[in-house]
Each structure stands twice: as C-alpha cells, then as structure tokens.
Design goal:
The chain is of the alpha/beta class. It has a single domain, classed as NAD(P)-binding Rossmann-like Domain (Rossmann fold, 3-Layer(aba) Sandwich), CATH 3.40.50. Helices cover 36% and strands 13% of the residues. It has an eight-stranded mixed β-sheet, with helices on both faces. Helix 5 runs parallel beside helix 6 and helix 6 (130-151) runs parallel beside helix 7.
C-alpha cells in the first residue's frame, strides 16, 4: 500500500479522498448541510465515490434532491439517502435522529457542516439565537441522539468519528458568551460576533466530546479554508462579509486580505451566477482528512487546518478545558437531557 501523502494548502478534497479511499471504503457517513455550491455538498460528492452509504441532509427537500441528482449523475452507483433535518429546531433534530435510528446501518462518521446565515438577529422556535442554535445546539443534540449508531460502527480496528466544521474566524472574537446562550439579547447581538461564538463552540464541543468518550468516539474540529460558498452569497450575509473584509465593496472575494483557494488547487470547479457576476467555488480538503485520515486517530480533540493538526492556531478561549466543560453543561440544560453513554 502506498504511503499517504502530506496534505498542504494546495491539496484538494478529491486528492485527499483518493489518498484515503481505503479508509472511506465500506463506511457510512452522515453530512449536514449539503446544498449545491456548499462545502457539505463537495464533501459528499468526493466521499460518495468510495463510501458504502452517504446520508445528505438539509431542511429543504427540493434542494436536497438537486444535490442527490448531481451526485448520482457523477457517481451512478452511489448509495445515497436524503434526510430532512432542521438544525434550528430541537423537535426537528429529534425527528430526523429518530428516522436515522430506524436505519439498519450504523454510522461511522458524522460530519457537522451546516451553518446558519450570518445576518440579523433571529430567534428559533426554541427561543435560541439562530447561529448558535444551528451551528452548535442542534449538532450537539444530533450527536447525542445518534451516539448509539456511532458506537455500533466500532470494532477492534475502527473508532467512529464526529467532525465539526469550525473556522479560523473563531479567534476574531472573545469566545462563547455564556450569559446569552440560553437567553439571547437582541440589544447586544452582533452578527459577526455571533458567528465567532458559534465556531468557538464547535471547537470546544470537539474537545469535550473527546474527553468524555475516552477513545470510544474520536472528535475533531477544523478550519476549511477561505472559500466562496453559498453562505457568503446570501443577501443578509454579504454586508457582514464585507465588514470583515472577506468580500470587497463589489461583493467579490477579497484576494488582498485572504488566501483563497485557486483553480489549480481545486480538482473540480463550479461556476456560480450571483448578482449577475460569475464566481468560482474551490474545493477544500480538511473535512475529508478529519473524517478519515488514520494518522490522526490518536489525536482526538484536535483542530485541523489544511488537513493537518494545528492546535496552536486555536485561540485560548476556545481551547480552555473549563470553557469546554461549561459549554457542555449549559447545552445539556438547553436540550433538557444529559449527554451520556
């Protein structure tokens, strides 16, 4: 067997999936947030070429069908299943988890990719701020409810994985504000800060999950890279992206401030038409590596950047064990049940 190559900024998801095909083969993977032109879709697309089962999720079944059709067109033999999942609703999460728990298959990898739009203050049906609900609380509950399915995939040579797509932007903020998670305040809300907090919560959850499961489940968080995806294109998100300097005044990617993935660094390129302009969506690789790279099997709780462990890149507030434990307890209180196994 050829040794697994070193992954770099220029490595694509396609290349990582090919290099790790033996690890992906036979696995059942559930990926949240898989609409076309997004990170989750691309993850599903490259994994589908090798996996036993890929479960794609989203709250809009029509968009899910488009993703399913696109993947089937490229990989006719794929075993793919759609799952309606509204992460902004605790009842919706419970309904989706109940459906998954009727499946005969176990789950080897759970990838939390979905994220709410970075926009104006919104409350969910459960009275939570939408970004924290969709990016953290919903995924926390889903992981809790699917833990039996994950543990069922374990054997003497395999440990199931949970992957949280976070962001290097977590370091721009001051960490999770525990005073407003349960009682969000529209007067103090800032869309960008809400995003930073949600991404910090992803990292802290991976750390605490890893600690509590003591090797029964491996958890990782990651920075996927600066990529022009559909979350950057939502009308309500564009002003925030411009305020952060991620997008320029013209709504185009700011290439002076950030290192964007380039065409040669993508194994495939998707052309997007937004506001009469043509943009390029590049591929990424950290998600696939976090889900399958055997070289990080003994590094549960790690944060990845460019497919490599980069714990030194995590801000102190998002690597503090006390914050991780506190967040876990607060989130258990929100969902109304203990996350134990």
């Amino acid at each position: 067997m050829s040794p697994i190559p070193t992954f770099t900024f220029a490595t694509t998801a396609e290349e990582v999936a090919t290099a790790l095909s033996a690890e992906i083969r036979g696995k059942n993977v559930l990926i949240t947030g898989t609409s076309l032109n997004g990170i989750g879709f691309e993850t599903a697309r490259v994994i589908a070429k090798h996996a036993n089962l890929v479960i794609i999720t989203g709250y809009n079944d029509q968009r899910l069908k488009l993703s399913e059709e696109a993947i089937k067109k490229e990989v006719p033999t794929v075993n793919i299943r759609r799952l309606n999942l509204d992460l902004g609703s605790l009842a919706g999460v419970r309904k989706a988890a109940a459906e998954v728990n009727t499946y005969s298959e176990s789950i080897h990898v759970l990838i939390h990719n979905a994220a709410a739009a970075i926009g104006s203050f919104k409350l969910t049906v459960d009275g939570l701020e939408s970004q924290m609900a969709t990016d953290h609380v919903g995924p926390f509950l889903l992981t809790k409810l699917l833990t039996p399915k994950l543990l069922a995939s374990a054997d003497a040579s395999y440990t199931p994985r949970v992957v949280f797509v976070s962001s290097g932007a977590h370091a721009f903020g001051a960490g999770v504000d525990f005073n407003v998670i349960e009682k969000p305040d529209p007067k103090t809300y800032n869309a960008s800060v809400g995003y930073f907090q949600a991404k910090s919560a992803n990292i802290l959850t991976a750390i605490e999950l890893s600690k509590r499961f003591k090797g029964a489940i491996n958890a990782y968080s990651l920075h996927p890279g600066v990529i022009f995806t559909n979350i950057n294109q939502k009308e309500e998100s564009i002003p925030e992206m411009q305020a952060l300097g991620i997008l320029g005044p013209d709504g185009l990617p700011n290439k002076e401030k950030f290192d964007w993935k380039t065409i040669p660094q993508g194994a495939a390129t998707y052309i997007l038409i937004v506001n009469r302009s043509v943009f390029v969506l590049m591929l990424f690789d950290s998600t696939v590596a976090a889900a399958f790279d055997p070289r990080i099997s003994d590094k549960s709780g790690a944060y990845l950047d460019n497919s490599n462990v980069a714990n030194e890149s995590v801000a102190p507030h998002s690597s503090d064990p006390a914050n991780a434990e506190r967040l876990w307890t607060v989130t258990e209180n929100i969902i109304g049940e203990k996350f134990e196994f």
